[in-house]
Amino acid sequence: MSEEKEMITGMEAPMYLTYNFTAGGATTRFLAELRNGKLVGQECPKCQHVYIPPRGSCAACGVPTVREVELTNKATVQSFTIVYIPIPNNPIKPPYVIANLMADGAHQSFLHLISDVDNADVRIGMRVEAIWKAEEEWTHAMENIQYFRPLDEPDMPIDEIGRLKNA
Amino acid sequence: MRDIAIVSFAQSPILRDAGAQNEVELIMPVVSAALNAAGLEDVQGVDFTCSGSCDYLQGASFAFVAGVDALGAVPPIKESHVEMDAAWALYESYLKIKAGQADSALIYGFAKSSPGDLPFVLSQQLDPYYYAPLWADSVSLAAMQARAGIDSGEFTAEQMAEVVQASRSNAKNNENTQLKGDYSVEQLLAEPEYIAPLRKHDCPPVSDGASAMVICTVEKAKEWGLPYAVISGIEHRIESHNFGARDLAVSESVVLAAEKAGVSQGPIDIAEIHAPFSHQELIVKKALGLDDTTKVNLSGGPLAGNLMMCAGLDRIGEVAMRIIKGEAKRGVAHATSGPCLQHNMVTVLEAS
């Protein structure tokens, strides 16, 4: 082996691991209700904060969230981003608005799309409502909601978004 | 330097498959059980929290962050994590308290191993250039180690079967374990080889669950009015990741850690050895310098139930609880990390 070899500077080492994912007991209950067209949060028995989507515990108190609370389709924009960069394989054409939404009665926000509005008009505190897909398309996913669109209601003051009513 | 005590320990049932429960749901009960056993209402009662887990088991990056949801971390707590067995989370907490930055700590470890193909998931913890791309799985590597030991005359297949027999028999007294029962050495040796020279019973079961522990200064334990076991020595040593550079049939790192932890400075009544494979118990027992006066793995050990990322903490908890209950005066707990006993920790525990 007198012949000089070129230095190897890279190699491919692909990783493929397969997992049987389970959502968890509490999230399973949430997803089952979503399949029925309902947004159902779970309430902390200690601090009364309502989590959606629930992970089974109150992250603040460290106790299981057992009681379920059905929420309406109404929510408030807590924060938002206008996305200009296309994501490969994403059918939604930029620019579009993705927002942290606080459902009425909930104390933890979730991400969803805002549509039926000029992107420039979206603002923190704006009131929105969920537009669901047709019932036959419902699965165990947040995508059952197509998007949120503005409601003809006054904005919610920033200090009140996601706060406990009597706290 | 201030002495450190273990005051409580809680372990979930060791299950083959925890089903729909997620990690947070596995952690919450043991964390509250360990805190309550220490007389604490919630995590705010300790100064520091440290966890052990491995994101590969969940197949998600930063999965350990979600584990904090089980704690109740408001107002914010001081918290840390090790991407390995929670025995090392105990070590970090021990140092934190020794350094005077905390007086007490909650330690927990958790894993749901059932969702993935565990031996292959663990192969991703190997060195990423030479071993991980070969998909060297944890059982095959352990088989290579067993072969090295048998061929060099360090131990025999009969001795390995005796380890399994004792593990399953001892596990009958442990309500949390997964595999238990009465088996004869002949019966075990009659089983076919699985990945030679290992038989299935030489390998640990896949397990789901979690464990938690509270440690504190001895002064704090007295203030709380709790019985406790003192950590009189703790040390860990690591060997090369290059299997070819190690003698797999013996454990130099256990010998060193045992010496530094002071294992030989008194009689050892009980030992819990974190040996997921039967032959590894023989290697570690010898490296610890234990003789037959020491009772080994009365809990059944990892062969009876192997909670990834807390089986090492479990060993320490088992010894501590037996000392607290007055069943032993002095004990040693061993924890391991990495393939083929690469990294080892030895903890010596004593009655107060």
Describe it for me?
The complex is a heterodimer of chains A (167) and B (352). Chain A is mainly beta. Chain A is built from 1 helix and 8 strands, in the order αββββββββ. Chain A has a 5-stranded antiparallel sheet with strand order 6-5-4-7-8, with no helix packed on it. In chain A, strands 2-1-3 form a 3-stranded antiparallel sheet, with helices on one face. Chain B folds into 2 domains: 4-114 and 206-229, Peroxisomal Thiolase, Chain A, domain 1 (3-Layer(aba) Sandwich), CATH 3.40.47.10; 118-202 and 232-346, Thiolase/Chalcone synthase (Peroxisomal Thiolase, Chain A, domain 1, 3-Layer(aba) Sandwich), CATH 3.40.47. In chain B, helix 4 (86-98) crosses helix 12 (311-324). The longest helix of chain B is centred in the first third of the chain and has 15 residues, at 23-37. Chain B is α/β, with parallel strands linked by helices and 352 residues long. The mean pLDDT of chain B is 96. Chain B has helices at 23-37, 55-58, 63-67, 86-98, 118-123, 138-151, 157-170, 185-189, 218-224, 252-261, 278-288, 311-324, and strands at 4-11, 48-52, 79-82, 104-112, 193-195, 198-199, 208-217, 229-238, 270-272, 295-296, 330-337, 343-351. Chain B: This is Acetyl-CoA acetyltransferase.
Quick overview of this protein structure:
The complex is a heterodimer of chains A (167) and B (352). With 167 residues, chain A is mainly β. Helices cover 7% and strands 28% of the residues of chain A.
Write a concise keyword list for the protein shown above:
heterodimer, A: 167 residues, mainly beta, five-stranded antiparallel beta sheet, three-stranded antiparallel beta sheet, 1 helix, 8 strands, B: 352 residues, alpha/beta, Peroxisomal Thiolase, Chain A, domain 1, 2 domains, ten-stranded mixed beta sheet, two-stranded antiparallel ribbon, 12 helices, 12 strands, globular, transferase (chain B), Acetyl-CoA acetyltransferase (chain B), acyltransferase (chain B), Thiolase-like (chain B), Thiolase (chain B)
